Amino acid sequence: MKRNLFALLSMVVLASMILAACGGAATPAATQAPAAATQAPATAAPATEAPTAAPTACTAANPSFDPKAADTSGKSITIAYEQEPDNLTGEFSNMSFAVWVDQIIGGGLAKWDDKANFIPELAAEIPTTDNGGVSADGLTVTWHLKPCIFWSDGQPITSKDILFTWKAMLDKGNAPISRTGFDKIASIDTPDDQTAVIHFSELYPPWPTLFTNGPNNGDQIFASHLLEGKTGLEKDPEIHSPTVVAGPFAIKEWIPGDHLTLVANPNYYEGHAKLDVIQIKFVPDPEAGLAALQAGDVDLMVNLAESDIEAVQKLEPNQHLRVDPTSDFEHLFFNLGTTTGVDGKGASDVAGFCPFQDPNVRKAIALGIDRLSFIKNYLKEDEKAFIASLWPNSSWYNTNLTPNPYDPTQAGTLLDAAGYKVGAGGIRAGTCDGKPVKFSLGIETTTAQRRVDDVLAIQSDLKKIGIEIKPNHIPAGTFFGSYTEGADMPLGKFDMAIFTTGYYPDPDAVGSWDCKDVPNKANPSGANDYHLCDPKLDAMFAEGTASADNATRKVAYDKIQQYMFDNTLMIPLYARANVYGYADRFVFPPSSGYGGWAWDAFNFDVK
């Protein structure tokens, strides 16, 4: 989704959000529990008396702004995109490349900056217990909008847009990627145009991820004056390519397969961005993007791999390297779906490979992959990227865990004991639930060269223990598609798959793992692509959000990681970093793992 940081920098631990106070700048060591969530973040905007009534005077917006007619002759940069987004509204896309555009054109109540601080965007301030924005019991969060803020068409942005966004996310007539978190809201009051009072049905510490714009959540506010009364939003043109936006740039044109042109939005609350135009050029793969950077055809290449670091360094002084630590990880995972589910919950339309229900089979596969050699020889990293769980480079990581070593002998022993012997052609076979099975398995992932290399290495390793791997590389826009688009992952039509993701800025990952989010015909918005329904794990994740105290939560997430590790629910391949190459002419504002490269697009500039 999203990359030899660890060889270049000392281990940097990203800040854990101070959830009850909505953000914090502390960066505790990975072995420490995060700071208690009882105080306002030191770096948040100072608490001020929030507006409770509509402002008496506003500078008028420009209602005649038409991005499609905007001039493109001013200052501009070109960004290379190896993956073309499926749509440009984050709530309806699984793709990081879509969410990154969403950060540039969309508007959220708040966002994360280059130091991982949670800062206001459309909101006047960050709600905290100290300023009265968060109730003593944590069940009510009050947001106050900035005065005089407008959509790109000149219409005012109001609390009604927040209310509409919530209703649209829960409307069964719509199919967002996930409803997680929005389904914890009992009601929203809008006493005036600047105020939204959100009442939660239960304590929900990850509330800062709702209605906010980050590289890993992408929950922009919807324009109610355009979408009110509509359903089936996942297919609506305004969701696919918004004509009206709240961010610093708006869409002039999108030529599929070629480019996306963004122009400065004069009605943005901060005014006209420093650039006039951002061109996003679609390239076939990262290698083509890197070549375009070297040739001077693009100013920024995002989503480079750790293995590209040396190549970018050699481009100095005309091009520069930036590497940001992140909590992202590349992982190989199993289709753990069953058509029966558990206790009437979590049934998949299609069952996964039957032997995957045996944790010893999953462990054998983990033991059969030489991850550390791949990390050292291909990624040119050291063992710091060799991880045991899904919360790397973060204070939530369970440091008591040690990754499974490469041990093909033990892997073979486990598979033999499970009844799957090496047969014809050196491929293991046996019976599962009374039916014959053969370990000839597909791994589905994107066409990116790093994924090709991932699969080739895994294919070579697993062949040695009697498992045949059949690579299935498909375009990212198809791979990351939704249930309603017929994508294989949500439909359960795969054996194993690989992609990068991360659980931040809040560690809660319940929407990706719980029974109620297994996608199926009755629940197309489910985001649990693992298709796992495990009530024990559900209960553990519930513990993780039962308290707003981060030290208490740390205990819960350590327990989750131990359980995932003991049962080999997935295989973490390696920790990722964000690797960028950019032209010397491009003034690239500071970035971070939490904020990403696009958090401050307003200040993009050229020398």
Supply database-style keywords.
ten-stranded mixed beta sheet, three-stranded antiparallel beta sheet, 20 strands, 607 residues, 16 helices, disordered N terminus, alpha+beta
Uncertain segments of ≥5 residues (pLDDT<50)?
A: 1-55
Rg (CA only): 24 Å
Return the structural class. alpha+beta
Fraction in helix: 10-25%
Figure out the total of helices. Answer: 16
Largest sheet report: 10 strands, mixed
Overview of the structural elements:
Helix 8 packs antiparallel against helix 10. It is built from 16 helices and 20 strands. Mean pLDDT is 90; it is low at 1-55. It has 607 residues and is an alpha+beta fold. The strands form five sheets. It has a ten-stranded mixed sheet, sandwiched between helices. A three-stranded antiparallel sheet has the order 4-6-5, covered by helices on one side. It has helices at 5-8, 96-105, 159-170, 224-227, 237-240, 286-295, 309-313, 359-367, 371-377, 408-417, 449-463, 476-479, 488-491, 510-513, 535-544, 550-566; strands at residues 76-81, 110-112, 118-120, 140-144, 185-192, 195-200, 249-255, 259-264, 277-282, 300-304, 319-334, 421-422, 428-432, 435-438, 440-445, 468-473, 496-502, 570-583, 586-587, 605-606.
Write the layout of secondary structure elements.
Elements lengths: L4 H4 L67 E6 L14 H10 L4 E3 L5 E3 L19 E5 L14 H12 L14 E8 L2 E6 L23 H4 L9 H4 L8 E7 L3 E6 L12 E6 L3 H10 L4 E5 L4 H5 L5 E16 L24 H9 L3 H7 L30 H10 L3 E2 L5 E5 L2 E4 L1 E6 L3 H15 L4 E6 L2 H4 L8 H4 L4 E7 L7 H4 L21 H10 L5 H17 L3 E14 L2 E2 L17 E2 L1
Parallel strand pairs: 1-9, 1-10, 15-16, 15-17
Antiparallel strand pairs: 2-3, 4-6, 5-6, 7-8, 8-9, 10-18, 11-17, 11-18, 12-13, 13-14, 19-20
Helix pairs in contact: 8-10, 15-16
